[in-house]
Amino acid sequence: MGSVYDQNMSSCTLMLVDDHPLMRDALRNLFDAEPGFQVLGEASEGAEAVQKCLELDPDVVLMDIRMPGMDGIEATAHIVHQAPRSKVLALTTFSTLEYVVPALRAGASGYLVKDARHEEIVSAVLQVREDEMTLSQSVANSLANNVLGDVPVPSVRRSWNEPRNTPPADSSAASRQSYVPELTGRELDTLRWIAKGLNNNEIAEKMKVSHGSVKAYVSQLCDKLGARDRVQVLIAGIQSGLVKPELTEDLTQ
User: What are the C-alpha distances in Å from 252 to residues 46, 184, 224?
Assistant: First the structure.
């Protein structure tokens, strides 16, 4: 397996969270064999993950969802609120909306299922660190169908304290549909490429601008759409009727 790590990038620090020791060992072995990665620590349940994340300050937390004690969704919400520099990448067996939607609402920057190939996991970690959107294909399809109304939205009961500036989950869709922000041509182009599943580098090539410019456009979209990250930008853009998802490519590529 060839490495996807760019030697010009700084080392990526990680924390592994899973209640199965064999899974943590497998992930540690995977990243130990990859140049440019350092595993700072491990945790077997959510509360331990939050505590260690605050202590270790990793770039990316690979987070299982179903664990004894505090689950991965609640732990993600605490990490996003208390340690916003650390990105959370959900890595779990479950790809149904029952888990995907609350994980993304909690602040996960990506969602992969555990049958992902090794190179997909490595690439996803790097993309999450760079504020890219990372979703398994099955998750992307389910999410697109969800926000288009083709399947029912699962009932989500939050068991943690949301930040005060986060609107209630059941009112976000209605508020976004009633308000369509005015976007510049560049911002709308960026949103359309996001809806096609392109990452920042690919968007920069398509728009013939710098990577930094694309990151600025994404940041502006977050502000105007009231979104936290690229996943939320895509959801808000679809719900506002600005774009339709065309997620025919694997977003982890």
Answer: 25, 28, 26
Q: What is the pLDDT of residues 188-199, one digit of tens each?
A: 999 888 887 788
Structure-token pair, residue 103: 């994980």
Q: Beta partners for 130?
A: none
d(CA 186, CA 40): 39
Rounded distance between C-alpha atoms, residue 129 and residue 60, angstroms:
6
Report the distance separating Cα 214 and Cα 27, nearest Å.
31
In the predicted model, what is the mean pLDDT of residues 145-174?
43
Strand ranges across the sheet with 37-43: 37-43, 12-17, 60-63, 87-92, 110-113, 134-135
Q: Cα-flanking dihedrals φ and ψ of residue 39, to 5°?
A: -85, 115
In this structure, are residues 65 and 46 in contact, taking their beta carbons and an 8 Å threshold? Answer: no
Q: Which domains does the chain have, with CATH numbers?
A: 12-144 (3.40.50.2300), 167-253 (1.10.10.10)
Question: Could you tell me if 14 and 125 are in contact, meaning their C-beta atoms sit under 8 angstroms apart?
Answer: yes
